[in-house]
């Protein structure tokens, strides 16, 4: 067979202001290029222990079971669902965007019996409707919702939703892919049970890892299962043997060593900044971008009370060609912004101000580039 | 919550001669540190198309469906099983080491009905037993086996095994985690149907990605399924929309951009060397190591006819403390070798000569270090 004649891939240098990945600081890229060591090396085990402490800080939790899944956020979602939902379990799933719909799909494939609470795309999850759904289905065992909907830019009240679930003895599975480090996410204070996130949003690491954390209630549910977890790769009982305790670590899968160096560095940088400062920076920079958008006449999809500072969704102005404008931004300005997803495809643009991309210079550059394209 | 005071992680520089990860060349590490771009960027899409061509060369196949799974080899295994096995399907699973046992576990969790063919650890899969298993179970729909058992270092006859499966109308799922690029693996010539591998073995990339390839027969089986695939993340029907055709790419999950840069570079390096040269290098270097082991009086677990050149398993000499010797190698010589797994734990050592680790200087260093420790 003839060998392909393909050169090394040299990517262009972009400014990433879409829904993720966000701009990755050189410091994190450099960390990823450090020498690979074995996934059972004592030095690597020490790094994993630090990683767990750093993730607990990011999640604001004391949960023992806090770790990165060796795969993207979609796998983190699937880990939460397949471990905490058994065939026949009733699950109330809130759908106010693409990712609520994806949770629903995961619940179905796990054999759960979903009860769907729908809200408009761009609106938060309605706590009244969720309360009604539980009243009509008091045997529901799990509530699944998205804290920060990446497809719309809407924030839901995770604390209130988890409180409703607990009133009915249900667990709360929470998608925090876009919220972690960008807006307050208080896993312990809000009593969230299973939370997954992604490395490539407000942590500004490269994509491919999914931080997760599980409460004691979630672990009790896991231990009380009557059926095996359908996924071998995502079975928490097995993953625990590897990430669980430094003393008695057993081989499960080969951890993605260098990407974990990157995530470790991203979390060290978060701790250096202080998570409250990170939240404040995201909030402040959103206001700058919003003011600029108002000058340009762009209208937000999400009401200001529920708007995510790190993901700004605006309607595409009438008469503007969606794809052509985004292509110009990419080709002439090396600026990536996000297209609409699902129901909002072709109607909106999504501007991420996540992590390292949430900076004054990015906002200025974005606004000036946009002005020339509109 | 108090913020953790944890510095950047600076790994030690090791020589990796265990069962993987293997030594990663600086050129691949440098590739991983290039600027992150979006997973839907046209430049990234071009890179993905190149990646598919490079992987086809590595697998020696024309299979259209050839791509890297965004997770480690364990997830590649699970992808093959959950897509090609439906509840109630009879599956003949060959177990001659840890990874055959893991395939069995995956088949069970997918609702398949396993028929296990056991062989001794260190022996290849016995084709006569497999033929007998099919004769007794002509309705079996899948044969699952490991081409190169990482836990023992034994090579099985993938071509002969696949031919038996096809005689009975069954598909062949093949674990090629340790074989890819280290010994001949002819996916088309041998008519293998679903093959998964890992980035961190003879490709010398960092761990975390699993190259896979599927034949037209496998795709036909997938399309004829009566039940949905139980995993959302690993559902080939969905993954195909993303990796399938450059023209009409749809968002599935966020691809691990920078790790894919690394795999791309590893595959470019393989093509530069030429895969036949890579196989020859692995074979030749094995002989050097074997000669050195003979001088040291170390005995191989696997008969020379079935021995993998890239994974050399030897019995620990009588009177030598397994853990203490490996700890000395690591601490004094920065040399990682592999412990025994499963039935062979405490009895053997595994020496990897994989990819970039398959070099004269590594062999010399390994033999001289070992001499001082024994």
UniProtKB/TrEMBL annotation, chains A, B:
Transferase as UniProt keyword: yes
Signal peptide boundaries: none
Gene3D superfamilies per UniProt: Aspartate Aminotransferase, domain 1, Type I PLP-dependent aspartate aminotransferase-like (Major domain)
InterPro entries linked: Aminotrans_V_dom, Aminotrans_V_PyrdxlP_BS, PyrdxlP-dep_Trfase, PyrdxlP-dep_Trfase_major, PyrdxlP-dep_Trfase_small, SP_NH2Trfase/AEP_transaminase
Keywords tagged on the record: Aminotransferase, Pyridoxal phosphate, Transferase
A biological process from GO: glycine biosynthetic process, by transamination of glyoxylate
Chain residues that bind substrate: 350
Cofactor: pyridoxal 5'-phosphate
Chain ranges of the Aminotransferase class V domain: 30-340
Stretch list, region Disordered: 1-20
Pfam families: Aminotran_5
N6-(pyridoxal phosphate)lysine: residues carrying this PTM: 201
Gene Ontology MF, one: L-serine-pyruvate transaminase activity
Family named by the database record: Belongs to the class-V pyridoxal-phosphate-dependent aminotransferase family.
Protein name: Alanine--glyoxylate aminotransferase
């Amino acid at each position: 067979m003839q060998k392909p004649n393909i050169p090394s891939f040299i990517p262009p240098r972009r400014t990433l202001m879409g829904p993720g990945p966000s701009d990755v600081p050189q410091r994190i890229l450099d960390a990823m290029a450090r020498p690979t060591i074995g996934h059972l090396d004592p030095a690597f085990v020490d790094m994993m222990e630090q990683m767990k402490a750093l993730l607990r800080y990011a999640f604001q939790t004391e949960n023992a079971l806090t770790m990165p899944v060796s795969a993207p956020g979609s796998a983190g979602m699937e880990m939460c669902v397949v471990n905490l939902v058994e065939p026949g379990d009733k699950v109330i799933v809130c759908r106010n965007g693409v990712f609520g719909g994806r949770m629903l799909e995961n619940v179905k494939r796990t054999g759960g019996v979903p009860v769907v609470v729908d809200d408009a795309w761009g609106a938060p999850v309605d706590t009244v409707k969720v309360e009604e759904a539980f009243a009509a289905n008091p045997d529901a065992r799990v509530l699944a919702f998205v804290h920060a909907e990446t497809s719309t830019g809407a924030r839901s009240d995770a604390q209130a939703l988890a409180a409703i679930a607990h009133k009915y003895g249900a667990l709360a599975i929470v998608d925090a892919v876009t919220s972690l480090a960008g807006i307050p996410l208080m896993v312990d204070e809000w009593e969230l049970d299973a939370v997954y996130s992604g490395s490539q949003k407000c942590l500004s690491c490269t994509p491919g890892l999914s931080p997760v954390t599980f409460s004691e209630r979630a672990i009790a549910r896991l231990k009380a299962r009557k059926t095996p977890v359908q996924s071998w790769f995502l079975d928490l009982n097995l993953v625990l043997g590897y990430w669980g305790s430094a003393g008695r670590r057993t081989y499960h899968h080969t951890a993605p060593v260098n990407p974990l160096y990157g995530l470790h560095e991203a979390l060290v940088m978060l701790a250096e900044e202080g998570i409250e400062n990170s939240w404040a920076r995201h909030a402040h920079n959103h206001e700058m971008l919003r003011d600029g958008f108002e000058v340009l006449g762009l209208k937000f999809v999400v009401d200001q009370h529920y708007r995510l500072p790190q993901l700004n969704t605006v309607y595409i102005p009438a008469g503007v060609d969606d794809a052509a404008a985004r292509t110009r931004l990419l080709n002439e300005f090396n600026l990536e912004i996000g297209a609409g997803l699902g129901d909002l495809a072709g109607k909106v643009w999504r501007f991420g101000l996540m992590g390292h991309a949430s900076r004054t210079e990015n906002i200025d550059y974005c606004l000036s580039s946009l002005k020339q394209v509109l």
